[in-house]
What we know:
Blueprint: H1 2-13, H2 17-21, H3 27-56, H4 59-82, H5 93-122, H6 124-172, H7 176-205, E1 210-226, E2 232-244, H8 246-282, H9 284-325, H10 329-339, H11 345-370, H12 375-467, H13 469-481, E3 492-495, E4 502-506, E5 514-520, E6 523-532, E7 537-542, E8 545-554, E9 558-563, E10 569-573
Helix pairs in contact: 1-3, 3-4, 3-5, 3-11, 5-11, 6-9, 6-10, 7-8, 12-13
Amino acid sequence: xxxxxxxxxxxxxxxxxxxxxxxxxxxxxxxxxxxxxxxxxxxxxxxxxxxxxxxxxxxxxxxxxxxxxxxxxxxxxxxxxxxxxxxxxxxxxxxxxxxxxxxxxxxxxxxxxxxxxxxxxxxxxxxxxxxxxxxxxxxxxxxxxxxxxxxxxxxxxxxxxxxxxxxxxxxxxxxxxxxxxxxxxxxxxxxxxxxxxxxxxxxxxxxxxxxxxxxxxxxxxxxxxxxxxxxxxxxxxxxxxxxxxxxxxxxxxxxxxxxxxxxxxxxxxxxxxxxxxxxxxxxxxxxxxxxxxxxxxxxxxxxxxxxxxxxxxxxxxxxxxxxxxxxxxxxxxxxxxxxxxxxxxxxxxxxxxxxxxxxxxxxxxxxxxxxxxxxxxxxxxxxxxxxxxxxxxxxxxxxxxxxxxxxxxxxxxxxxxxxxxxxxxxxxxxxxxxxxxxxxxxxxxxxxxxxxxxxxxxxxxxxxxxxxxxxxxxxxxxxxxxxxxxxxxxxxxxxxxxxxxxxxxxxxxxxxxxxxxxxxxxxxxxxxxxxxxxxxxxxxxxxxxxxxxxxxxxxxxxxxxxxxxxxxxxxxxx
Length: 574
């Protein structure tokens, strides 16, 4: 049973069991690494399933997802451990540490993702309380938003009331007496208020100015007992007379004056208000129209306020329902964040849990880095090196085969090329022979046409000579002194001084650009040519390249041209 569990943990570590059979001392190390990876995956399964429970609230979904999450974490941890290999030299530990750094980063992120759902479960009771506060705050926020709508309508009503008051004041302000009364009434009210204040202050201060005069005694009855009929029996007692100091008397007199002033001021104020009311009643129609106008304007906001007040209970209930249902993962994480303020007990507990999971997640990597290089590492490196050599040898053999195949293909292509050259040469010779025969035939036909034209010209000149001897004599002399010039057109010219046979055929011969046939290696190209500078120069346009040549010499049997760009000479034979 123990051996089976050990083999299972070795499988979890990613080590090769066949190699470990040859290295029995390495088994405990890799079994421990595999156990750490396995139990980390178990924690990840619990954590992922618990987190998904708040997302879907369905065990048939959260449990499979938790298992899947555990498998993912298991595979990642196993890969991270497998990717770290011990170097043969101790000096390379820094390189190993640098290589392992990205794996530490991945392990830390995995640890955080595993620890948070576990923290949600451990602090569930505190989170529930915090969620209650968040829900109440959410409902209060909804209520405040709704109240803002009502306050907005109340603001509209207040604006309407202010507008109504302003319009009424504009109506009243057309009466000067009313304006005076409107200014005087507040002053009188303020004066009455000041008098009342002074009266009350004096009344409070007067008692402190009373005193008992021991030199002025007055008799006072005092009940001492009762007779048989129950009637009181008195005796005379002399007590000091209570008197008022001069300052107190002054205050008493001042209060009497204030009472008179108040009576006068109240009467004046009453008369002023009566006059104001009388004037306001004289504008009753205008005021009624203003009131009616603003009452009509107040109906929409009043109706909206009434509608909002009716909808408010349902809206608040809907907010409460949504707040109760919003018990998802994100809100729980928010509640946990609110609870874990800096350095409070919840923060410390959360930090300790996260660090523990981080240590658990990084433990296999740390063990792999700190442990010495063992026989398993040597054996694994030996196998990998053999595989590397075999792979290189296989690649080398494959390269040799490819090189041999390329040589065979090159030889075959060379043979095909020679055959093709011979074929092309034969084809070119046949085509050149056909072109030569064609051109010779064209030259013969042109010579015959020229002879016919000369005979006709001769006959015409002879007929003219019979009618006008002087004229014909001059023409005859001219024709004899100016022989027909040699031309380059309608002739096949071969370029000398080249191994390849190159031919030029200048067609037409008109002053405008004419067609040029260029033949090289049996392949023909079409270009253009024309005379320049009174037929002392040739301009040739071939393959989009334009060149100008001076005609150095031109005879029936040959032609010599000089290229104006480089002064190179070209010689042709006909």
